[in-house]
Amino acid sequence: SQDASQPRTVTAAICPDDLRQRAADVCAAAGLTLTRLLLRPYALSTWARQGDESGQGCGLFVCQAGDDLDLAIVANEKVTYSRTVRLPRHAEEATVLGGLIAEIRRTLLVAPQVEGASRAVERVLVFGEPRSLAPFTERLEQELSLPIVVVNPFGAGVASPAAVPDDPSRFAPLVGMLHDEVKRRHALDFLHP
User: Fold this and answer.
1) Residues near 36 by Cβ (< 8 Å), separated by ≥ 6?
2) What does the alpha-carbon distance between residue 47 and residue 55 come to, in Å, rounded to a whole number?
3) Which residue, 56, 70, 91, 174, is most buried by CB atoms nearer than 10 A?
4) Chain segment 11-43, per-residue pLDDT in tens
């Protein structure tokens, strides 16, 4: 909050030196220089305007990246709560689907208890390809009684259809980060605190 009469809520994050060095080494091996080091859930906040043109609503952002599931509560384009959970590797689809929904429910239960995250979630944004996510989003909408917005990060002319990867969800933070790089300051950058 910018209101000086209100208490400040602070989010603290730590990036160990060995992780920063490993990222710099990978970039150097590719002939690149590391210029940003961001948290994936924070890079998702740029998508806050999807389904709500004002960007002033409160949503739960769900993004699967490999075995990780990023869950972020974003209110007024700011991350108020985030967590990343590891999904089971070789489980049946029904088990994974049940696990996804359980983690989303857990996040919705815990988030209001966190100071600064008390605003009610009005919608859920799920990143990925709409057709492949249809069974999941239909069940999620029934169980949560919240509107579900599916966001393909490569939609709206970001890439040609031939260039879109099979699993676009994992690229949502990267596309969001690129958007923020052009349009606004990153919410959290370990190289420029």
Assistant:
1) 177, 181, 186, 189, 191, 192
2) 8
3) 70
4) 788 999 999 999 999 999 999 999 999 988 888
**Closest residue by Cα to residue 79 from 193, 173, 174:** 173
Say which residue, 174 or 53, is predicted with more confidence.
174
Q: What pLDDT does 98 receive?
A: 79
Contacts of residue 78, defined as CB under 8 A and 6 or more positions apart, other chains included, come to 45, 187
- Exposed, middle or buried by CB within 10 Å (0-12, 13-18, 19+), for 56? exposed
Query: Is the Cβ–Cβ distance between 114 and 79 less than 8 Å?
Result: no
Q: pTM of whole model > 0.70? A: yes
Q: Which residues 6+ apart lie within 8 Å of 132 measured at CB?
A: none
